[in-house]
Amino acid sequence: MAHEIEQFTDGTAAFVSARESAWHRLGTVTADALTAEDAMRLAALDGWNVRLIGLHATELTADGTTLLDVPNHRASVRTHPKTGLPETLGVVGPDYTPVQNEEHAEFLNYLVDESGAHFETAGSLREGRQVFLTMKLPQSLTIGRDDAVDLYIAAFNSHDGSSAFRIVVTPVRVVCANTLRAALRDAKSSYTVRHTSGARGRIAQARQALGLTFKYAEEFEKAAQRMLDAEMSTPALRTVVDTLWPLADSDSARKKTNRDTRWASIRNLFEQADTQAGIRGTVWAGYNAITEYANHVAPARGANPELKNAARAERVITGTADDVMERAFRLMTV
Q1: How many CA within 13 A on the CB side of residue 329?
Q2: Given CA atoms 118, 155, 157, 206 in this order, what sign does their dihedral have?
Q3: Interacting residues of 81 by C-beta distance below 8 A, sequence separation 6+
Q4: Which is it for strands 15-18 and 28-30: parallel, antiparallel or unpaired?
């Protein structure tokens, strides 16, 4: 499935959401905010006991079978949350140290005590190879008079060595549900912890680093307000779009056609879309036109419309469009 939420043979799924159903309609929806314990239990994330075991290679020859050690790699293994059986998640290097799901939740639970945030979602992706938990901060931002922006902290972890333990601060524009991950020059919006023997100590450092969360919120609100107060013309937006997606004279006709199609979509969002009502003609509207295009309109692979929609929704979950949105924010901040 395009959403990659882990699904089990008993019909359940490794996903939980507080109060609101997810686009993929899987997992459990709770009536109230989640505690760490709720998130772990309802998303089937507890008791995995991720551990490393030795690897062996088998060579078959005319003389029989020879078992060979693989000294510089280990298999990352979990206890399956439904069957209780060991399951391989990936192959990792000699310095890799697992970060348990319980440690993942414990880190975010610390932020609950410090800030009053509560758990919103939790789940497992790619058959347990990646997990995520998100929390909603207690205060929302207001850009202008009625453009509400909530602030979330999302933490991602992998158990197959594909990525580090990563924490991001994510403002979400409620009106159009865009996820906005902006790299602000004067505030920290993310923290990465490598899977090494010192990982637990660096998680403690991340707690201190993310004490800048509220500064991030304040800086984002100030920057967005300046963007809302500044006018933007359609030609000015075109200049930003051309900078984000540069094209050379020697590029193929297909790339030039794609450029024209992209610009037509972004221009329509900027000039006509309902999501721009109340902010039209501003730099903030231009930025939101780009983020809406990157997350929800940009072409997705596949012929099946449902799969295309799922792929677009997955961009928001995985942050695929983050680089474009961050560069756009830097270009358009006034």
Answers
A1: 23
A2: negative
A3: 8, 14, 44, 45, 46, 47, 48
A4: parallel
- Give residue-wise pLDDT tens across range 119-173: 888 888 889 998 888 887 766 555 555 556 667 777 888 899 888 887 776 653 2
Amino acid at 65: T
- 164-221 confidence digits (pLDDT tens): 887 776 653 222 222 223 322 323 356 667 777 666 666 666 666 665 455 666 677 7
Query: At 47, phi and psi to the nearest 5?
Result: 75, 20
Helix, strand or coil, per DSSP, at residue 129 = coil
Torsion angle of C-alpha atoms 217, 221, 222, 227, degrees rounded to 10? 140
Rounded Cα distance between 300 and 303, Å, is 9
Q: Which of 204, 221, 200, 205 is nearest to 137 (CA)?
A: 221
The residue written with tokens 């505690």 in the block is 35
Show Cβ contacts of residue 33 under 8 Å, excluding neighbours closer than 6 positions. 18, 19, 118, 119, 120, 136
